[in-house]
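Tokens as discussed.
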């Protein structure tokens, strides 16, 4: 899912009529100090990253003066939290908290539900994961009729919200549902939802994830990449998303995998299909090779899209090989892959002579596809380590892995020799 940072999600909550603390994001200690001075009151300085547990990791600091806000921002900016570097902090007013609650709307994919579900608890905050199940109340929401006020009231009464506060809570929950629907969210969470000492409900935090398939409907959100990454997007991730964004015919997914250009044994990895991809990963891991990236061209993409993916995968610097892993009997016409890979390799191999390439294609139009590969690569400059296989090795990951490893060892020895000769 496309995840927004806290300060971004809070801005959309504010526009939906849900109260949020006053403040804004800062990119430097000086800016944090300026914002705190403008607010003129104690503030919270909070790291802005796509990771939970900020409070426990010391990335949320409560301070009383602008100078302290500057000091807090200095200590937070540039740190790394669960693999994400902190580039911004949110500086916002410190709330006078009387009580904390938890509320979220997610998609319940259970067979007997398959609809949005609201979860509410009177015990919100950092330790929500340890709250007993009987303290979390769930409400299935009809995609057709939405969240009705009386349904929200019923859940709140069961949760123990006092009668004189039920209407205030119910109105906020309905606004939260309307925001969830309007912004095409997959997840919309407030933890904690704070009751202040003067009786106001305020969203003290916000986790907002927009459904990838709906990002195109919200250009106003400025979402750069409609994907969920376990790391900050790399240049390869941005290029890969550009392929998918420009052409939705079949999959053209490309994602980085922590490729270290200075370390040997990384392979440009081009699988076809998710299950097939896992088999190829096993083939690489068993022989001590590593995927430089993850790619997927399933779902019957056109040759032009497959070519763009193959070209991106092959263009990665200092890879020691390329694996086209069709570990499945695909019903898509494989000659689209064959034409695309031939074109990409004819352009790349003269620049990377001897690069090991193991190509496995199986399924519909297999014979024609293998013929295209063999003929198209027969007289290509630099194509000295290209091996082509079909259905006889469709599930033979040991064989494919060993063949690629043998070619990689030759290639690495050749590179070392050339380096020594120079």
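Sequence:
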């Amino acid at each position: 899912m496309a995840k927004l940072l806290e300060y971004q999600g809070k801005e959309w909550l504010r526009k939906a009529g849900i109260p949020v603390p006053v403040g804004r994001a800062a990119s430097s200690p000086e800016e944090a100090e300026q914002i705190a001075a403008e607010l003129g009151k104690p503030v919270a300085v909070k790291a802005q990253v796509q990771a939970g547990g900020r409070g426990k990791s010391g990335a949320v600091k409560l301070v009383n003066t602008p100078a302290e806000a500057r000091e807090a921002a200095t200590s937070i900016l540039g740190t790394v939290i669960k693999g994400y570097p902190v580039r911004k902090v949110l500086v916002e007013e410190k709330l006078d908290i009387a009580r904390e609650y938890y509320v979220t709307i997610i998609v319940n994919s259970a067979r007997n539900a398959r609809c949005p579900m609201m979860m509410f608890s009177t015990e919100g905050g950092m330790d929500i994961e340890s709250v007993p199940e009987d303290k979390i109340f769930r409400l299935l929401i009809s995609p057709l009729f939405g969240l009705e006020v009386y349904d929200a009231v019923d859940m709140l009464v069961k949760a123990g919200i006092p009668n004189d506060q039920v209407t205030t809570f119910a109105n906020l929950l309905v606004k939260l549902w309307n925001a969830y629907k309007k912004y095409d969210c997959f997840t919309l969470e407030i933890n904690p939802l704070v009751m202040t000492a003067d009786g106001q409900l305020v969203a003290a935090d916000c986790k907002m994830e927009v459904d990838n398939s709906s990002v195109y409907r919200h250009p106003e959100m400025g979402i750069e990449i409609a994907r969920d990454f376990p790391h900050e997007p790399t240049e390869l991730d941005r290029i890969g998303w550009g392929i998918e964004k420009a052409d939705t015919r079949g999959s053209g997914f490309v994602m980085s995998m922590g490729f270290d250009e200075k370390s040997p044994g990384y392979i440009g990895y081009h699988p076809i299909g998710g299950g097939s991809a896992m088999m190829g990963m096993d083939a690489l891991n068993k022989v001590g090779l590593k995927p430089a990236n993850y790619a997927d061209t399933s779902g019957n993409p056109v040759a032009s899209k497959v070519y763009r993916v193959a070209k991106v995968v092959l263009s990665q610097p200092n890879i020691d090989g390329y694996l086209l892993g069709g570990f499945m009997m695909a019903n898509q016409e494989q000659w689209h892959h064959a034409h695309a890979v031939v074109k990409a390799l004819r352009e790349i191999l003269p620049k990377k002579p001897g690069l090991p390439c193991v190509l496995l294609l199986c399924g519909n139009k297999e014979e024609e596809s293998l013929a295209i590969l063999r003929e198209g690569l027969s007289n290509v400059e630099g194509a000295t380590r290209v091996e082509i296989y079909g259905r006889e090795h469709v599930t033979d990951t040991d064989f494919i892995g060993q063949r690629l490893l043998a070619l990689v060892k030759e290639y690495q020895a050749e590179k070392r020799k050339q380096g020594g000769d120079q």
